[in-house]
Structure formats: C-alpha cells, structure tokens
Design brief:
The complex is a heterodimer of chains A (305) and B (336).
Chain A lengths: L1 H5 L14 H10 L2 H18 L1 H4 L37 H36 L4 H14 L2 H12 L3 H28 L2 H8 L4 H9 L4 H24 L11 H6 L9 H29 L1 H4 L3
Helix pairs in contact in A: 2-13, 3-5, 3-13, 5-6, 5-8, 5-11, 6-8, 7-8, 8-11, 9-10, 11-13
Chain B lengths: L1 H28 L4 H6 L6 H10 L6 H13 L13 H36 L4 H14 L3 H15 L22 H7 L5 H36 L2 H8 L4 H39 L4 H10 L3 H29 L1 H5 L2
Helix pairs in contact in B: 1-13, 5-6, 5-9, 5-11, 6-9, 7-9, 7-11, 8-9, 9-11, 10-11, 11-12, 11-13, 12-13
Classes of the chains: A mainly alpha (305), B mainly alpha (336).
Protein name (chain B): ABC transporter permease subunit
GO cellular component, one term (chain B): plasma membrane
Family (chain B): Belongs to the binding-protein-dependent transport system permease family.
Chain lengths: 305, 336
C-alpha cells in the first residue's frame, strides 16, 4: 500500500487504499528506532510484572540465610541460583525487581488514571467556561504548579503518612495540573473550529460538545502526556520510597530497595546498582515512547526535530 | 516597564496566598489532635488541654485562625520548631545558604556544559555526535538522581578515593559561619586548606544536582539553535564569508539564548526539589535535608514553614526571571 503511494499510482487508488489511522500511526512510530526498542522493553516489563509468580526464581521476601550479599552470577562466587545476587537479608534481587515492577507499574498506571481523568473534566470545564469557573480552576492549578512535583508530593505524604495508597494519591495530585492545562489548551484551540460551531448550531448540548465533539480531537497530546506522566510517576514514587516516605520496606519497591542500600556501597555494588538501573531504564523507555508517540501522533512537531 | 512589573506582581500575589492556604491546610489536615501533637503530652488534664487550645488559638473559627496565621507570616512569624524550640524562620535561613551554594554550583556545572553540548549537537545535526549527545541528555533527564548520587559516590569516593562521601567540609576545620556560604567563609578564615576541602565536598553533590538541569539545557539549546540556524541572516552571515565559529557563537547562539535563559530560570524548582534528594544522600546540611528530617520527626511547624518558604523562594525567582525577560525582550514587556 505504501509502495503504491510512493510509485505514484494515485489515480487508481480508491478510498479503501488509504492506510487505516492505526496502521499509519504504527508506521510513523516504527520509524523511530529508540521508541520501538523502548516499546519492546516496556512490553517485556509488563509481561514480567503480570507473570511475576511464574517468572521470578524466588519469592520476593524469602530470606536465604546461607547467601547474604551473594554476588551476581558473572562475578567470582556468584551462582545461577541468584542471577543478580542477593541483598543484606539474603533476598534474591532479580525476584525483588520483578515483583517491584508490579508495584511501579501499578503506581504509575493508577496515578496517571487518577490525574488524567479529573484533569480532562476540569480542563474541558475551564475551556468551556472561561469566565469565572475557568479562571478559578486555573488559579488553583497555578498554585499547585508553583511547587515542584516532588516537594508537593512530599508535602502531601507528610500529611497523609507514607504507604502505597498515599503515594499513588500524592502523585495523582501532583500530576493533575499538567493534564488540566494541557486539556484546556487543546480544547481552546478546537473550540473555534468550524466543526464545533457546526455541531453547536445543530443543537448539541454542552456535555455532548465537550466529551463527544471536542475531546476526541484533543487525544493526541493527552496520550503523550499520559506516557510522560507515567514516567514522572515512577520516578517520583521511587524518590518517595528512597526518602522513606513512599512504599515501605520490606515491599520490593525499587526506590525503597535503594534506601537501605547505601550501607553496602563499599561491599556489594550490585545491591545499590540493580534497583536504580531498573528505575532508569524504565523511565528512559517511557520517555522515549513519549517522544515517539508525539512524533507519530503530531506530524507538525516532527519537523521541528 | 513599571506597569509590566505590576502586572506580574498581580499574578504572583494570588499564587502566594494559595501557597499560604496550602501550608495552613497542611497542619489542619494531619490526622490526630494538633494539641497532643504540638504539646506532646499523652494524658493531658482537661484544664490544661483547654488552655493549650486557647493559647494556640485552635478554639477559634478557621477563618480567624487563617487570618492570625497570615498576619503572623507577614511579621515573619512561622512558628517554633518542635525539635529545637527555635523559630522556624531562623532555622530555615541558617541552613538556606548551604542549599543556595549547592544549587549555584550545580548551575555553574550545568549551564556552560549544557550550552556547549546543545550547540555541538545542533551544528552536527543527524550525526553520531548529535545522537550521542541527545541520548545522553535523555538519559540524564530520566535519571533517578538519588541513585546517580550513590553511583558517583561508589566510583569517585569509594573506589578512587578522590572525593569525600558526605558533609560540607572536613571535620578538622572549624569555620565560623559569616555568610553561610562555605566557599566564602573558608576564604575569609585563615585556616590552611579549608577552602580546598570545602570545594572537594561540593563537587560531587553539585554534579548530581546539576544533572537534570544539564540535560534540560542541552536539549533546549539544541532545539533553539536548530531553529535559528535556519534563519536568513545566518545564510547572509555565511555568504559574507564569516568564520564558522563566529557565525555559531555571535550570530546564532546569541539569538538562541532567549528560550534557554527562560529554561535556566525555570530550573529553580528542579534544583530545590533535587536538593531534597541530593542533600539526603550527601548529608548536606541544607533546607532539603532539614525538611525531610522534620517530616521524619513529625515536626509539623517546620514542615509547614519549610514548604511555605521554599514555595515562596520559587515564586520570587520565577518573578525575577519574568521581569528580567521583559527587560531583555521589549516584545514581551509590551504584550498584554
């Protein structure tokens, strides 16, 4: 099909010959090698998290007293029993990382959903009622934006107390302003377009205009924002865990795993290195995917390179 | 110009009030009884409890409490730390120079390096160098800096023994805090080697804190440069036969700097949030570590005051950047 277009056989083309939007999107996305590799990694990570009980060689909190701080397999004294070595309590690091992926992805997914969904509603309201309600909403968002995300999350957790649920809530609150602003900005540009005016004239109600007419056309930036928000959520959750304000040990949360690792920096580098690598690679992959999605969904931006 | 500054101020004041409201709400949303928390007694007798409620003003309606809180704020009263019984403001501003020193050092590391990296990537667009720089920048941007700090400590402090692991200066020095900036204080003191020791302690935390700003500046510089390099006046400059270096530095970079300066200004938030993590790793005695310690010890007045003061600092610096931006660029000043 693509070859048809390139070889210039436009005349013979019927409507069905155009690639479907999904296919077109995929071809554009696939052109970005980094984003494609990142997507592959992410799929593997999701599968690993879902199948953790099958894939993890050990239980995440099983303590092997005979193998405290065992080195990874490729080092002297390492064995295939503990591929990435064990921590100070004799727990298998690989298994903890796999179970930790469950936590990180769960936190990321839930906090993105909890920030994007209210963000869309508030953003649309702000765009449709710019007079009073819009101003009020945006002022509140400005205040929330004034504090850096991690500090706001720290403040929220300081009040609510540490733990998984509060981490998710704190990160959702922190991510809210970005989705509100983005939805509002996207909706504002759509609002003056002919098709919106047409459906308004045709008698569509406000709710229908908001969610059926305008929202679908604002999805591209929102999808990108969701991806980037996902990576920010994982990073902030890990930072909270590291500070002892997030998910609490002995949960195998990646950031919490690092919190106690500082003491082993001289004796067991793998205890310090592995959880951080997992965070870095996952966040990097999500950022690459976000870039790839933006380029594929919004060809206008691609030209800017 | 005056009107421009006033307009900016008009936006800032509601934001500041919002942050005071947030800080005020913070202490009222804490589960549990604030009196028990603040006075710290378990079996209070009811008389004393009532007196404490009255003394803390907690028996008044909320709006009155907020009003008192606000008027206290404007007189510089942010309450007293539960841990040290010192005024929160005093504690904050004793430690704040340490954070500022670290942040400035981080920007001193990030800005020139980021500019060079961005320019190099833009001028070699599409080459291996460009991809390498951008890949490194995206990695830096995705970096969990608390882990990055541990990695650098492992390499430079533990294996190579080049830098110290924590603190601002070696214990053998006793430096009088005149300015609070260790580099300046050590220069003012006549202790041999103190300045070098302070510098040694500063390098690693500054690199860690500067990593994300470095990545952001490099990315921004590259895209701003790419934009400018397409302009006609660059072609004109090239046609005039100017040297490549002169075209890039004088003609292109100068015009690309505008968005970069904005991005540098916006890093204040990143720096202060990053300071929380960096100071924790390096036991750097600044406001970030202080805030986390306060949370750990349930010192709520300090948490409340710390959030408020850090938020205020960020607002003020952003205001300053906005105004400076207007000074440099008349188009912004006169836009409505």
């Amino acid at each position: 099909m693509a070859a048809d277009i390139q070889s210039g056989t436009h005349q013979t083309m019927t409507v069905q010959d155009y690639p479907s939007p999904l296919r077109e999107f995929w071809q554009a996305y696939r052109g970005n090698r980094g984003a494609t590799i990142a997507l592959a990694y992410f799929v593997v990570l999701v599968v690993a998290a879902l199948l953790a009980p099958l894939l993890a060689p050990h239980a995440p909190s099983e303590q092997y007293r005979d193998a405290l701080l065992a080195p990874p397999v490729w080092m002297e004294g390492g064995s295939w029993r503990f591929i990435l070595g064990t921590d100070d309590a004799g727990r298998d690091i690989l298994s903890r990382l796999i179970y930790g992926a469950q936590l990180s992805l769960f936190i990321g997914l839930l906090s993105v959903l909890m920030s994007i969904l209210p963000g869309i509603v508030l953003g649309l309201l702000a765009a449709f009622y710019p007079q009073r309600l819009g101003v009020a909403i945006m002022r509140v968002m400005d205040v929330m934006m004034a504090l850096p995300s991690l500090l706001l999350a720290v403040a929220v957790v300081a009040v609510l107390g540490p733990g998984l649920a509060n981490t998710i809530l704190a990160i959702a609150i922190v991510c809210l302003p970005a989705s509100v602003r983005l939805t509002r900005a996207a909706a504002m540009t759509e609002l003056n377009k002919d098709y919106v005016i047409a459906s308004r004239l045709a008698g569509a109600g406000q709710a229908r205009l908001m969610f059926n007419t305008v929202l679908p056309n604002c999805m591209a930036p929102l999808i990108v924002q969701a991806t980037l928000g996902f990576s920010a959520a994982i990073l902030d959750a890990a930072a909270l865990g590291f500070l002892g304000l997030g998910v609490q040990p002995p949960s195998p949360e990646w950031g919490a795993m690092l919190a106690s690792s500082r003491d082993y920096i001289e004796r067991a580098w793998w205890v310090v290195t592995m959880p951080g690598l997992a965070i870095l690679i996952t966040v990097l992959a999500l950022n690459l995917m976000g870039d790839g999605l933006r380029d594929a969904l919004d060809p206008k931006l691609k030209k800017m390179g | 110009m005056f009107g421009f500054v006033l307009r900016r101020l008009a936006v800032v004041i509601p934001t500041f009030l919002g942050i005071t409201l947030l800080a005020f709400a913070l202490i009222h949303m804490i589960p549990g009884d604030p009196v028990l928390l603040l006075v710290g007694e378990r079996n209070l007798d009811p008389e004393f409890y009532k007196a404490a409620m009255h003394r803390l003003g907690l028996d008044q309606p909320l709006y009155l409490q907020y009003w008192h809180y606000l008027s206290g704020l404007l007189q510089g009263d942010l309450g007293t730390s539960i841990r040290t019984h010192e005024p929160v403001v005093k504690e904050f501003f004793t430690l704040f120079p340490a954070t500022v020193e670290l942040s400035l050092a981080a920007m001193l590391f990030a800005t020139p390096l980021g500019l060079v990296a961005g320019v190099v990537a833009a001028t070699r667009r599409g080459t291996v160098v460009d991809h390498g720089v951008m890949g490194a920048a995206l990695t830096g941007y995705s970096m969990p800096i608390f882990w990055w700090g541990l990695m650098l400590i492992m390499l430079f402090s533990v294996h190579l023994g080049w830098t110290p692991v924590s603190g601002r200066i070696a214990l053998e020095y006793d430096i009088e805090a005149k300015t609070g900036f260790m580099l300046i204080d050590t220069l003012l003191s006549d202790e041999e080697g103190a300045f070098l020791s302070a510098l040694h302690h500063l390098v690693l935390p500054a690199i860690v804190l500067g990593t994300i700003p470095l990545a952001v500046i490099a990315r921004m510089t590259r895209s701003a440069m790419l934009e400018v390099l397409r302009e006609d006046y660059i072609r004109t400059a090239r046609a005039k036969g100017l040297s490549r270096l002169r075209i890039i530095v004088v003609h292109a970079l100068r015009n690309a700097l505008m968005p970069v300066v904005t991005v540098i200004g916006l890093q204040v938030g990143t720096l202060l949030a990053g300071a929380v993590l960096t100071e924790t790793i390096f036991s750097w005695p600044g406001v970030g570590k202080w805030l986390i310690d306060a949370i750990g010890q349930r010192d709520y007045p300090s948490v409340q005051g710390g959030i408020l003061l850090i938020g205020t600092m960020i607002i003020l610096v952003n205001l300053l950047v906005d105004v400076l931006y207007g000074v440099i660029n008349p188009r912004i000043r006169h836009a409505r």
